[in-house]
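User: Can you predict the 3D structure for this chain?
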Amino acid sequence: MNWKTLEFDQLTPRDLYLIMRARSAVFVVEQAHVCLDADGRDEQALHLFAMQESGGPMPLIAYARLLPGDAEDPEVMIDKVLTSPTRRGDGTAEQLIEHALRVIAQRWAGITVRVSAPVGLKSFYEQFGFRKTEGPFLEYGVAYIGLTRRQRGAQVSSGSARNHGLSLVSTYELL
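Assistant: Here is the predicted structure, written as structure tokens:
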């Protein structure tokens, strides 16, 4: 696997196309999430992804978007998490989260990390030190929970209640 971590401006047109194609295939087509995937947050994010070295019909095999926090809510968010259908259950999802946590620790040392995931993925995220902090709540007709993971020296956010109203759409699924 060829792992990349790139800012929006570093993505090639092909990278961006393959990311958007994979996100649409998983979230819109496979999971029937009727939402605007191009939500205006990609330009501020780091894009972590792995490509198959041999190409194939779906060369992007794993992806996560890492969103920095701001002064009001400094937590880093991992979202748009996906793995290719051909790589589910083979450890790729675990590698993706491990890579994401390493990148976050290097780039945003000490900042709490947040994910939102379907309730059924609670134990998956707990193996990486995430703990349930909110929910369940409904997104796309599915029960989700919020989980956070504090890094060493992490600061606690002053606002623990999240605004689910929604300039952002949580799509933290690993299938």
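Strands lie at 2-7, 46-51, 60-67, 76-83, 113-118, 131-139, 142-149. The first strand starts at residue 2 and ends at 7.
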